[in-house]
């Protein structure tokens, strides 16, 4: 009788032997590259390649089964499983470990929970080749997939797995944005210029969620950072998703229609785009140019501040001059929290006249007095201190002219430091400023990011900080300066009684009810029975 012929796929090759995955049972079978058969005929299988579909017979030699008489079949002849057409939705219970930290012993180590066709809750495994892409999957991710059924043992597995967008809305992962800055084809990797951090972020092409698209320089993307398993204290961009062009913004307008006074003019020769918002740093490697920056003084929340201004952000036909009253927006780079004045518009020219110094002049014409500025409605108005600073700058610039005359500048607003350094907790963070809750938990103190020691973008709500309290003359308001982050645990924890109490909230936090005078909430204690 003719020997029974079997089929399979070559799944392993060594120098002198290999293995075939059989199509009839879940089992591998050994074969020799150069095979001396029992009848003395030499069989040469050197033409067999990994992944070839083959047909063979089985011989028993020394008590072991060996594949012999191998014949190549057309690709796709051998089919191990039936692929379904219905798409299912489920959640990842066990993702694959791609870090190599744990040794995989299962052929299908991943697992997904889903509703089966009969609406019953079921679990289904998946392997390394079952994702559409090699991106990172996480526990709890929502995915869609189809079911493949092995013809040999009827085992089902999830395949053609795609990550659904809702995974990001239900997870607690922090998604960041950026622009692809550099690609290295030989390593399958690249770098992303990040919106919220100054350092660029490395990534691998395999982390792109859309396998139908290739990443190119300039692509706007969204991603999640994860520790690099091969380099300590380094991070990689993972789960990279393409964004619609124009989505990524490296800067943001944090205040509009601010009034101020020009204390230093932007350099007239620097009418190129040197603004941080328009410089290569917005989507390239160079840092914002500082050369040619002018300065505007203004007041925000009773705190005197100054801000750089660049010629590129002013009207070239009507550039601001020393002492001019201007209106502008405050722009902030998200990565570094640096600010600069944008959309600067001159509202009122400084009324300063230089007297004639010609030798034949018998008398010097007195300089006219500046016209009082008209009332202008805006979100914030410049303080007298701001105008004073500008006037002082005018006096310095005109030190060589002994006849310069302006209206007497108002007295500078006084400020003084109150007592020794204080401690508290970061209670709130806004764009460019924040608030510190005192140790007494009775109020919050304003601080500006420019008064933080170190990088303000590293601040988080709840951090312990040390600061000095400064009092301003105007309105008696105070602010925190010299804000320094303390090591965790620097502020002793209060003693807490283990007794469980019951009560009723009779006054919420002021953050819940901004109209109330008291900062703290209030709970009235009562017994467990409600008395």
Task: Spell out the blueprint of helices and strands.
Layout: E1 6-13, E2 17-22, E3 28-32, E4 34-36, E5 42-44, E6 53-61, E7 64-72, E8 81-83, E9 88-94, E10 110-115, E11 121-126, E12 142-150, E13 156-163, H1 166-170, E14 175-184, E15 189-194, E16 201-204, E17 220-227, E18 235-242, E19 251-264, E20 294-300, E21 303-309, E22 325-333, E23 339-348, H2 384-397, E24 415-429, E25 433-438, E26 444-448, E27 464-472, E28 478-485, E29 502-507, E30 522-526
Summarize this structure as a short list of keywords or feature phrases.
531 residues; elongated; mainly beta; single chain; six-stranded antiparallel β-sheet
- CA-CA gap between termini: 96 Å
Largest sheet: 6 strands, antiparallel
Instruction: Tally the beta strands.
Output: 30
Radius of gyration: 36 Å
Average per-residue pLDDT, rounded, comes to 81
- How many individual helices? 2
Percentage of helical residues? under 10%
Q: By helix and strand content, what is the structural category?
A: mainly beta
What would the principal axes of the Cα set say about the shape? elongated
Low-confidence stretches: 270-274, 280-289, 354-383, 389-414
Strand residues, percent: 35-45%
